[in-house]
TrEMBL record:
The keyword Nucleotide-binding applies. Gene3D superfamilies: Cyclophilin-like (2.40.100.10). This is Biotin-dependent carboxyltransferase family protein. It comes from the Bacteria. Residues 29-287 form the Carboxyltransferase domain.
Length: 287
């Protein structure tokens, strides 16, 4: 039987709020970025607690200030960064399934640890699925981020559904961990010894130049590498320019690039880095 759809309305939001799932896999040959949740660990966790599919679409918000109003009952779960979350002005817990009723208002407030929150909903948000994904991306989906007045569809639940059960805890140590495990990239072998040592032992600072496409790093790594013909790149690829600039590609990154690929972050390290703010310090641990 087909489930009845309801909607919520975005009352308020800052820039960068979007719908994300695990992304578009298998289309890079056509120039289509993967996209998907920056912190896939937190996204999967809220879906797990809700009993939804691992790939169910969630709201990703990159800063506080999101305010949503529901027009029908459902269940939600908020995860990711430590933040002040309110439902109808009452504080609610992260990582807990919360029943909501028609007219309820959810607010994401100040974040005290981390930089991204995920709002999951039972069954996932039912936005348009394009190329196997609901993830927003400019030029593929009709909008690239949520704005005031947007409506989002979800499956209508039963009224006054009370959630009971054991309280679960999640470790947020990864939000504070300054060590990012990485692998050697295809062009690592062309680096001189001094450049390799700098990448392996230096403490780096996250620049203010960061978005879903790429994070830049303030410190320079002098090197003798030359730019090359374009080559495949992926989320987590660390590029090193001839001028010494380090660029970490994130989930909305292009699929090819001309800078040497010196390191590659696995999914766990992408999640760690995505939750860091401008000015945060970190180090690479090369596997």
């Amino acid at each position: 039987m087909k489930r009845e759809l309801a909607e919520l309305t975005v009352i308020k939001t800052g820039p960068g709020t979007s719908i994300q799932d695990l992304g578009r896999i298998g289309f890079s040959g056509f120039g289509v970025p993967v996209s998907g949740a920056m912190d896939a660990f937190a996204m999967k966790w809220v879906n797990y607690l809700l009993g939804s599919s691992e790939n169910a679409a969630v709201i990703e918000t990159l800063q506080p200030g999101l305010k949503l109003q529901f027009n029908a009952p459902t269940k939600i779960c908020v995860g990711g960064a430590l933040a002040k979350i309110k439902l109808n002005e009452n504080l609610i817990s992260l990582d807990k399934v919360i029943p909501v009723e028609s007219g309820d208002i959810l607010e994401i407030g100040a974040q005290t640890l981390g930089a991204i929150n995920y709002i999951g909903i039972e069954g996932g948000f039912q936005t348009d699925e394009i190329l196997g994904s609901r993830s927003f991306y400019q030029g593929i989906t009709s909008i690239s981020q949520l704005s005031k007045g947007n409506n989002l569809s979800y499956f209508k639940g039963k009224s006054s559904s009370i959630t009971k059960g054991a309280k679960v805890k999640i470790s947020r140590d990864y939000l504070e961990d300054e060590v990012l495990e990485v692998y050697k990239g295809p062009e690592w072998r062309f680096l001189d010894t001094e450049s390799k040592e700098a990448l392996n032992s230096s403490t780096f600072t996250l620049s203010k130049l960061l978005n879903r496409m790429a994070f830049q790093i303030e410190e320079l790594v002098p090197n003798l590498l030359q730019e090359m013909a374009t080559a495949p790149v992926y989320p987590g690829t660390v590029q090193l320019t001839s001028g010494g600039k380090l660029i970490v590609l994130m989930k909305d990154a292009q699929v090819t690039g001309g800078y040497p690929r010196v390191l590659q972050l696995p999914e766990k390290s992408i999640a760690q880095l995505s939750q860091k703010r401008a000015g945060s310090k970190f180090r690479f641990k090369i596997k």
